[in-house]
Structures are given as C-alpha cells and as structure tokens.
User: Which sequence fits this backbone?
C-alpha cells in the first residue's frame, strides 16, 4: 500500500503512524492477521518511514490479511478510517518478494522559503562537484560522521513563489510581492547510514555556507527502484500489479494468475 | 467576528520541539465548530502535558457535551512543554487550543480540570501565555472567566486569587447551566460587566466565586471566618451530582490521538462514587453516593466506543471496579462479545477482597494477561484498620495464590507511608507481606519464576476526609521508613530478587500537602515558584523541592504549619464553606474512630452510617442488579 503523510500530519512520528494505522484497520473491519504468542500484534510492516516533520507522497506498508480482500475496497475503507492527512493512494495485492528491497531511492522536494536562489545554485554546484561531503548528525547513539555526497544521484535548485495557492509555479521567480522560495529537488539512494535531506542541507552549508533563514519544508515525492537506463524512478508496486493481475496491467511475462 | 488560527505561526516553531504532533490537533472524533456558530465558547484545559491530559475522562466528557449544546463550542488546550513555551514567548505566539488553534484569550470561559494540585503552576503558564492577567482581580471585560473543576477544586483556596470561579463535583449538568447563564448575560448586552456575570453564577449556589468571600484570620494564623461579602451570595457552595449515569452515556465519540498518550484505550465509567469508607481516600469521600451504570448501557457504550475509536483495549473505570453489582455478567458478556478479536478488557482499581479469579480470567480471555495490581495500602493489620481499608492478610494471600496458580506471574502491591499513627513496624510489615506473597506463589506453582512489586508513596492528608485534621508525616520520617523497608526487602536473599521495590520519596508529598490543605495565603508561594521557573510539578525531572521551600520562605509561609500540624476539632478549615455533602461531625467521629482502631462498613451492603451526603444532597445510592445480560452483537 502506498500512502501519503500530508500537511500537519507530517509531524507524526513513525510510532504515531503505526498506532493510527492499527486502529484504522480495526475500524475499517479489515481482516488483519495477528502474530501468535503472548502478546499478539497485527501483521503490518512498514518500509523506511519518512522522519518526523517531513511530509511524504510515497510511504509504503504491507498488511497481512486472513482472507483475500479487494484492494480497491481496502483502499476506500482504510482511507475513510484514517485521519485526513494520512491518505491511502494505492493498494495492490502483494506479490512474493520484499517490498523494501524495491525501494532503492527516494525523490525529495525541499522548500526553502526566503532563501536566495543564486546562492542555492552555487551551493548545489559545489556540492555536486565535491567527491565526498562529510557531515555529522546526532543519532540516538551520539554524533555520527558520514559522507552525504555519494548517495545523492541528482540535485537541482529552482525557485517558486512561496505561496501554496498559486498554481503553475515552476519557473517564474517570486517577485510578485511574495517572498521568494527556493525549491531543491533531489534523488537520493537509500544507504546505511541513511542520507536524509537535512544531511544534504548540512552538506550545502559546509561546502558553500548556504543556510536557509527558516526551517525547510521537506516532502518525499516518490520512492522506488531506479531505472538504470533512464535514471527515473519506477513505481515499486508495478511488480505486484503485473504478478497478481496475471500481467494485464503491463507486459505479460510467465506469471500465472491465481 | 471570526478569530484567526495561530497555526501558521505555530507551525514554524514545531520543527524545533520534541513530539510536535501533540500540538497539531486533528484527533479522530475531535470537533471544530465555526466560531460564529456559537455565542458561548469554552476552552477546556487539562493543565498537564498532552499525553496525560488527552485521555482524561472529565475533559473528554465536557468537551462532547458542550459541543452538542446548540450555540456552544468547546475546544481543548494543554500545558506546553518548556521547549515550546520558550519559542512561543520569543515569537509572541499565545496559548492556543489544539482543535482550531484559536487563542485561549478569545474564549468566554477557560475551564481547568484539576485532578491534582501539582498542575497549579501549569495554569499560571497558560494564563500568562494566553495574555490573561494572572490575578483574577486584574482581569477585564475581554478576559475569559477562569473556572476550575476536578477533585482538587474541592479546596481551591490556594489558587483562589487566580480563579474567577470553581465548581465542585460532576460537571455535566453545571457546565450546561453555566453556558446558559453566560448566553443570557451576553444576549442582554453584558449588563454590569464581568462582576454581574460572576454574581449571577454565584447566586445560584452551584458556582463558587472566591472574590465574593472574605477570609478573616486569628492572630495565630488560624482562619477565624469565611463569609460572603455580598448579600445574595450563599454561605456555602454545594457540589453537583449526576444521578442517572444511563442518561449521560459519554464519551460517545472517544478522542483518538495520533500522539502516544498514557492510556491507549476506550474507557467507560461503570459507576461513580465509592462507599468503602477508606479514610485516606478523598475520591471516595467527595464522589458519594455510589451510582452504577447499568450493564446494558455499559455494553452499548463499549460497542459504540470500540467501533468509533478502533482501540483494542477497554477500561472499565471506577474507584473500585469489582464492586459493581453485576461485574461478573459485564465481564463475561463483554469477553463473549469480543471473543477472537484481540480486544482486551482491563479493570483498574480492583480490591483484593472483591477480586475473584473467574473475573480475572474473563478479563484476560481475549487479550494480554498483564500483571495484577492490588492496593492493601497499609502494611499491618492494625494500620489497615486505622485507614479502614479492611483487607486481611488471608484475603490477600488467598487471592494471589489463585492468581499465581492460574498463570499470572507478576503481582503489584500499592502501599502508603506516613499514615496517621504509623510506626516503623507497620511499614516493615510490608516486607513480611511481600515475602508471604512470594512464598504463596512459589508453593502454588512449584516455580521460582514469581514476582511481586511493592510500590509505595507518601500519604498526603486531603480535605473532606476523616484525615483532614491529621498531621502529615514529615519527609525525614517517611524517607527513613522507606529506606528501612528497602533494606528489609533487599536483605533477605531468599526473596530479595523476586521482590521489586518502587517508591516516591517524601519531599514531593510535603508540597502536595501544602497545596492540598492550604488556604489563600499559599497562593503567593505558587506564584513565586512559577516566577522562579516552576513548571510541571507532577514530573520528577521538573519538580524542585528546594524551589518550593525557598518560595515559601520568601512569601512568609510556614510549610510545617500547613502540613505536619494536627488540627483541632473546632478550627475553621479553609474548605469548610465548600460542601461535599459530608457531615463534619461524622468526619470528626470517624477520625476519632480511626485513631482508636474502629471500623466502618460499606453502606452499599449494610445500613447507612450517616456520612450525611444523601440527605444533604438529595441523592441516594443507585445499584443493581438489573438481572439483564449482554446479548451477542448482531452482524448487520
């Protein structure tokens, strides 16, 4: 299942989301499977959740069910039971193979209200030109140093008016009275330790002294396997769709339905 | 005129604070009404962190009832942690509600629910952040009426200067009545301003307005008299009692938070009140009489609550839950209904003598078998007689033996230290009891994998109880006994590792004692503590005993005089003008009986023993059995 974490709900932590999903599953009456044992837990697994404070259009989870369910029905019921802002976007019947393995890279959008576009572009250039950019982050085990450069496959800076309302943003710089807003787009490979957008921002500060004036608004736009030829992100659920529908959605292979 | 949401300004601060989700609202079943759709608007505050405040039943019930009332809206606000408080001050963001993020100062009423006195400093933070003057006398026409309720409001005197009004007892009906008084007054164009509104509330006899009462003191500091200073204000203010709980089946729409909270369950009160007569227990005294909710209403509330919330645990709440006249049928009926659904039931507050193993088995049938908790409170038979908690050692051993042999491995026992007439031996008796519990468990199971945890804290004498006259034990005595108990538990190698020991040291109890039985002069201490940075006094990492003592010294308040001093029968107590229904003479007699070791029966089963509540309040005990059963849920 693909779901989004939007608006105010971006402040939910991973634990908050898992509680909300468990309850929504119960309210929606989805026949969720439970683990055996002393303290039974619903079988719901999450793949690489976005950090607290970060919005996402592409979070993934898997729910174990005891009887076959219609994915479209599950999508409707669960979306209705989840709070607005946690929105179900896509549900498919899972094919064999770990979903997490297909989530190789993430595409992120980082909005930096009030930041200077030219400075951002210079910083991006310097960052990309560097071989490695060592950053430090405070983890639960204390400060940790790692390279933030290698994981970054793509990084661009563009500007847009800092108003969510106005459409057709992409290009025109924000001189219409509104505050300027730089948007960074980046494609980052999932590695250990994970390189997150804030690590890249730290990197930009280190290489070019680029520091946005207010906290950034970060959104994960997509997650998935990387197409080696085009460099584009593919939908990680395509494989499930192809498999479980017997190939009707894509180029049929040797899958056998049922 | 609509009031603007402060959320855009708050949102910029949230990435910098811990657990930001607690400030964003949007809980399932929360309500946001149009500002202009209501002419009476309540901000309801639980003056502690969101994670503690959200599950609070009192606030949740009033929130729902007020939002159901036409022309009325209610939103919730909680204490913000110091990290956000600092940012809000720096950026000028006011105290806000989590529902629509409206500034608290824009509401007509700020209603605070005090379960404990340790929330007083948090109230001052909220008032200050809201831009509401701390002292009621400084407030003007644009400020909300600051109204306190909850158990601590049965002696609101220490915070009298900061409150416009207080309400005693069940809030459902009086919250509606207050709303109507405000509505009328506003519709008439607010005649007489704030003062007249408070007069209208005070005249009813159901709302206490501190400023309409003057307190005179004797030269030695004792109170001489508390008297109304306006002709139409009653001498005494009475508590409120909801008489038919089946008519008030709230919560109907349980709030389901995104943030983690202290209780993750759907809770139903199965009855209010308790007549066991434990002399230390303020809750048992001020919530009389017993009023049961019927088995059918409980069943319907659980069914609805589970459906609406998705919680997988149901808590059946009351002060002594196994005392419900049909608890066996309730437990069996619910366990049958939720068979195979991983819905667990919990029964907090179970007395040893009312507990039986069949009941426990029903409660753990569909879910986790957590530990069992009992509260003998006193370590010796003599001590338990003094506090009138008549649980015998045999009761306890029989119950835990049954529990251990049925597969429970962990039993938790709660005690108090510093009870009236207590000696070192009474406290050391707890060690003997715990060892006997372990011994019984080992014999019953043939296993050494048996645990028992002793949890103990300092006793605080509370208003409206027979112990309201008692001298509180000083913290040195309490700490010395706690230490001796620990050594006795640890010293015995045969049992030491099987017995866990948790304790709260004596100092916080002294501050709680000061606030519980304090009078208006204690308000200066609260303010000084708050000005010195005191926040979240219920949290050990924030609480500072030294800060409280320094503030008391500065305010010229003798802490010992308020805490360890025993009071005489005829001393005017700060809360004597607040009527919980209890007959003062009966309380005094019971206090005398306590010291001489006399016991009192429970009037639920034996004839009335004249505490005075029913005749004064026009109430009566309401219990089953109804003889009804819970039928299986039908699937539509």
Assistant:
């Amino acid at each position: 299942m693909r779901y989004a974490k939007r608006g105010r709900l971006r402040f939910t932590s991973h634990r908050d989301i898992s509680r909300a999903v468990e309850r929504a599953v119960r309210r929606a009456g989805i026949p969720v499977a439970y683990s055996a044992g002393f303290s039974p837990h619903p079988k719901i697994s999450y793949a690489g959740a976005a950090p607290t404070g970060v919005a996402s259009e592409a979070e993934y989870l898997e729910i174990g069910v005891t009887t076959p369910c219609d994915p479209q029905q599950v999508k409707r019921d669960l979306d209705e039971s989840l709070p607005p802002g946690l929105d179900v976007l896509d549900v498919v019947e899972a094919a064999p193979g770990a979903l997490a393995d297909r989530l190789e890279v993430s595409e992120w959008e980082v909005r930096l209200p009030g930041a200077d576009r030219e400075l951002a572009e210079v910083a991006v250039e310097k960052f990309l030109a560097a071989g490695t950019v060592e950053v430090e982050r405070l983890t639960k085990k204390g400060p940790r140093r790692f390279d933030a450069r290698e994981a970054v496959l793509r990084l661009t800076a563009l500007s847009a008016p800092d108003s969510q309302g106005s459409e057709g943003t992409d290009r025109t710089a924000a001189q219409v009275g509104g505050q300027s807003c730089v948007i960074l787009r980046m494609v980052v490979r999932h590695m250990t330790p994970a390189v997150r957008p804030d690590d890249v921002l730290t990197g930009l500060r280190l290489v070019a002294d680029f520091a946005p004036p207010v906290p950034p608004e970060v959104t994960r736009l997509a997650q998935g396997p990387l197409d080696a030829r085009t460099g584009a992100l593919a939908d990680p659920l395509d494989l499930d769709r192809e498999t479980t529908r017997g190939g009707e959605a894509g180029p049929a292979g040797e899958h056998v339905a049922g | 005129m609509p009031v603007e949401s402060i959320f855009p300004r708050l949102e910029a601060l949230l990435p910098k604070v811990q657990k930001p989700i607690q400030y964003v609202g949007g809980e399932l079943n929360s309500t946001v009404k149009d500002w202009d759709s209501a002419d009476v608007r309540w901000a309801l505050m639980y003056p502690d962190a969101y994670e503690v405040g959200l599950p609070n039943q009192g606030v949740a019930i009033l929130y729902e009832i007020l939002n159901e009332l036409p022309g009325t809206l209610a939103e919730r606000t909680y204490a913000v942690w110091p990290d956000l408080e600092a940012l809000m001050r720096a950026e000028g963001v006011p105290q806000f509600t989590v529902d629509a993020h409206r500034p608290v100062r824009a509401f007509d009423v700020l209603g605070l629910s005090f379960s404990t006195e340790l929330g007083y400093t948090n109230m001052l933070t909220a008032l200050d952040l809201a831009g509401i003057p701390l002292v009621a006398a400084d407030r003007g026409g644009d400020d909300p009426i600051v109204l306190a309720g909850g158990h601590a409001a049965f002696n609101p005197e220490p915070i009298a200067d900061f409150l416009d009004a207080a309400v005693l007892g069940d809030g459902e009906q009086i919250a509606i009545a207050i709303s109507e008084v405000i509505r009328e007054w506003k519709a008439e164009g607010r005649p007489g301003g704030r003062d007249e509104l408070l007069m209208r509330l005070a005249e009813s006899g159901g709302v206490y307005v501190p400023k309409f009462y003057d307190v005179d003191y004797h030269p030695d500091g004792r109170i001489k008299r508390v008297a109304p200073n306006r002709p139409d204000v009653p001498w005494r203010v009475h508590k409120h009692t909801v008489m038919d709980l089946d008519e008030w089946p709230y919560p109907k729409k349980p709030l389901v938070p995104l943030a983690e909270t202290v209780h993750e369950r759907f809770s139903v009160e199965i009855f209010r009140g308790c007549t066991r007569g434990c002399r230390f227990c303020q809750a048992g005294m001020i919530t009389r009489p017993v009023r049961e909710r019927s088995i059918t209403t409980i069943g319907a509330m659980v069914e609805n609550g589970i459906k609406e919330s998705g919680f997988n645990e149901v808590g059946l709440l009351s002060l002594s839950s196994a005392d419900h006249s049909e608890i066996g049928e309730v437990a069996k009926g619910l366990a049958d209904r939720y068979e195979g659904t991983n819905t667990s039931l919990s029964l907090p507050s179970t007395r040893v003598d009312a507990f039986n193993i069949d009941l426990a088995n029903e409660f753990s049938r569909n879910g986790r078998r957590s530990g069992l908790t009992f509260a003998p409170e006193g370590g010796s038979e003599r001590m338990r007689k003094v506090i009138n908690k008549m649980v015998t050692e045999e009761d306890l051993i029989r119950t835990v033996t049954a529990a251990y042999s049925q597969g429970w491995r962990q039993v938790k026992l709660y005690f108090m230290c510093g009870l009236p007439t207590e000696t070192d031996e009474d406290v050391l008796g707890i060690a003997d009891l715990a060892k006997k519990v372990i011994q019984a468990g080992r014999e019953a199971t043939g296993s050494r994998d048996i645990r028992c945890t002793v949890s103990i804290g300092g006793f605080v004498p509370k208003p409206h109880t027979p112990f309201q006259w008692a001298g509180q034990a000083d913290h040195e005595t309490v700490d010395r006994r706690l230490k001796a108990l620990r050594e006795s538990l640890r010293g015995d190698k045969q049992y030491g590792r099987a017995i866990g020991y948790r304790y709260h040291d004596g100092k916080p109890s002294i501050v709680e004692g000061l606030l519980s039985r304090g009078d208006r002069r204690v308000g200066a201490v609260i303010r000084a503590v708050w000005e010195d940075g005191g926040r979240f006094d219920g949290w050990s990492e924030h609480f500072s005993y030294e800060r409280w003592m320094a503030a008391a010294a500065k305010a010229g308040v003798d802490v010992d005089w308020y805490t360890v001093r025993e009071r005489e029968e005829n001393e005017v107590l700060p809360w004597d003008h607040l009527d919980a229904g209890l007959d003062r003479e009966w309380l005094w007699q019971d206090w005398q009986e306590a010291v001489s070791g006399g016991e009192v029966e429970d009037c639920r089963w034996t004839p009335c023993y004249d505490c005075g509540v029913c005749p004064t309040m026009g109430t009566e005990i309401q219990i089953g059995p109804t003889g009804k059963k819970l039928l299986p849920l039908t699937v539509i």
Remarks:
- The radius of gyration of chain B is 25 Å.
